[in-house]
Write a structure and sequence with these properties.
This protein is mainly alpha-helical. The protein is 50% helix and 7% strand.
């Protein structure tokens, strides 16, 4: 049925997108905490999907969620583990058995180290004792509190950054 009115289709919608624009990877589109499909992980890490499926069978540390129809959803920690395994196999020359052994040892060392080191608790406020009254005579509720100064906070953040760097070094060496 022709009503004599032509539909207006914008010219830009009919033309293909320019090939000069860089294609965005899923990691650039999604939140860093979002789950990823096997195709997104394969594209981001430049690995074939069958390699990811094979590695799932060889490395128990890779555990994607599987939904209806067997569709896989990888957590950010799974993607990081796959990235680390790829680096060990392709760049550092490890065998699959070598990587399995390294991951087992790392897991044992990590769980042991975590049990030995308490998690740091940074105080938001620091109690200050009055110079006029000794602490033994002051009631518990009468101690004044003050906020940390910007300099103290910066020092705490620097120490925390150093500790994180040391932890990362220890994780990389497998200790």
């Amino acid at each position: 049925m022709n009503t004599g009115i032509q539909e207006h289709i914008p010219a830009h919608s009919a033309t293909p997108k320019s090939s000069s624009a860089p294609a965005l990877q899923s990691s650039e589109i999604k939140s860093p905490t979002a789950f990823r499909t096997i195709s997104e992980v394969a594209e981001d890490l430049r690995l074939p999907q069958h390699v990811l499926r094979f590695w799932e069978s060889k490395f128990q540390q890779i555990r994607p969620l599987k939904r209806g129809g067997g569709r896989r959803y990888y957590r950010p920690e799974d993607v990081q583990m796959i990235h680390d395994i790829k680096d060990l196999l392709y760049n550092q020359g490890f065998t699959i058995r070598g990587v399995q052994k390294l991951l087992r040892e790392k897991n044992q060392a990590t769980s042991y180290a975590r049990s030995m080191v308490p998690q740091p608790q940074l105080p938001v406020t620091v109690p200050v004792q009055s110079k006029e009254q000794p602490a033994a005579h002051a009631p518990a509720t009468a101690q004044p509190q003050h906020q940390t100064t910007p300099i103290q906070r910066r020092e705490i953040e620097n120490v925390l950054a150093e500790l994180k760097a040391m932890r990362k070094l220890l994780q990389q060496t497998g200790i």
